[in-house]
Amino acid sequence: MRTIKVILLFNLLCILFTLTPGYLRAETANRIVAKVNSDIITLYELNTSIKRLTGLSAEELQLRGEKKFYEVRRAVLDNLINEKIAKQQITKLGIKVTTKDVDVAVEQVKRENGLTQEELIHSLKGEGITLKEYKERLKGEIEHFQLVNYEVKSKIVITEENVREYYQKHIKEYTEANKVRLARIFLKIRNPDDRQEKAQVKELGREILTRLEQGRDFFEIAKIYSQGPAAPEGGDMGWIKLSQLEPRVRKKIAKITPGEHTDLDLVPSGYQIIKLIEEEKERVKPFEDVRDAIYSKLFKEKIGKRYVTWLKKLREKSYIKVIF
């Protein structure tokens, strides 16, 4: 069963709360556990939220240990308090999400996950929720997205200078190491102690070398004779960082140029011939190639910090009473 993933900016906020297992004894489900300004949070809401976020029931969580239980209860309750405060701010700002907005989001989820309407409903059923409940969750996600956009995102400014400064300070992150694209013909020796087999494999290797020197295509020969995992692709091993190669192999290919191949080389499990297809020297990615990625990284970092600060100020101004 595929898990439905809603890619919205508000998902960033979820990382602010680390959840660990644990839970409470059976209590009156509708009793109040917290007051947040004019709103209340009931034990039922708390239990439901813990179940949704951890996938475990109250009884199952309690078996994980009392200490863990208190930790998760407080973390989830804090999350609920934050949600109440955010919801109050959404109401205060007059943020409205229409049915059409939610339907558009549903279509986006279906498109991104390659689902039909029937498949979506079936997948949601597997997660224990109905399409109506899912749409309610989406509505909440969109409301929070708009809240963050209004209160936090719109106040963030990332200048070209900020981006260039980050680029210069983290230049190593944007430096590509020397890398080579190799192809290999590998002839396996099944029993290293069998001299006759070893001699036969070596002789085959010499015959292959002769054919290569006569102009035969390396990739075609690899498809026929190589016993390596890349044989169906003509022995093409793809791009490999030079630093990831064994010193012995690095030394071998250092003596050849692109288009050339090594001699027959004995390795622990057989003989090999390596072809250097292409090579790229170490280079620094141009600023223009990474500008957008850096901007996105800085923006996400700032939005996370700003949201925490903004939420903290709102909590300080709010009336919050926890009742246990």
Task: Give a structural overview.
The protein folds into two domains: 9-156 and 299-322, Porin chaperone SurA, peptide-binding domain (Triger factor/SurA peptide-binding fold), CATH 1.10.4030; 178-281, Roll (Chitinase A, domain 3), CATH 3.10.50.40. The chain is built from eleven helices and nine strands. The strands form three sheets. It has a four-stranded antiparallel β-sheet, with helices on one face. A three-stranded antiparallel β-sheet has the order 2-1-9. Helix 1 (43-54) crosses helix 3, helix 4 packs across helix 6 (131-151) and helix 7 packs across helix 11 (287-317). Mean pLDDT is 86; it is low at 1-26. It starts with 31 loop residues before the first strand and ends with a strand. The protein is of the alpha+beta class.
In brief:
This protein is an alpha+beta fold and 324 residues long. 51% of the residues lie in helices and 14% in strands.
Helix percentage: 40-55%
Quaternary arrangement of the chains shown?
Answer: single chain
| CATH topology name of the largest domain | Triger factor/SurA peptide-binding fold
User: From the 3D coordinates, which CATH architecture of the largest domain would you assign?
Assistant: Orthogonal Bundle
Summarize the main sheet: 4 strands, antiparallel
Distinct helical segment count: 11
Structural class: alpha+beta
The strand order across the widest sheet is: 5-4-7-6
Q: Regions with pLDDT < 50 over 5+ consecutive residues?
A: 1-26
SS strand fraction: 5-15%
Average of per-residue pLDDT values:
86
Shape: elongated
Number of DSSP-assigned strands: 9
